[in-house]
Amino acid sequence: MLDYGVNNRELFPETKSDGTVDIDLSSGKFVKVWQGPQHPGITGNMSLELTILGDEVMESKTHVGYLHRGFEKLMERRRFINNFPLVCRICVPEPDFNEYCYAAALEELAGIEIPENAQWIRTLILEMARLQSYMMWMGGQAGSLGMGMIGQWVYWARDRVLQLFEELSGARIYHIYIIPGGVRENLPEGFKGRMEQMLQDVENVLKDVDRVLFHNAVFKKRTIGLGYIDPDWVDEYGITGPNARAAGFNRDIRKNYPYAKYGELDFEPIVKKDSDVFTRARLRFEDARLSIDLIRQILAKTPDKGEFKAKMPSMLHWKIPPGETYVKAECTRGEYGYYVVTDGSGYPRRINVRGPSYTHAVTLAEKLMVNVNLADVAGTLVSIHTYPPEIER
Question: Which end of the chain has less Cβ packing within 10 Å, N or C?
Answer without folding.
Answer: N
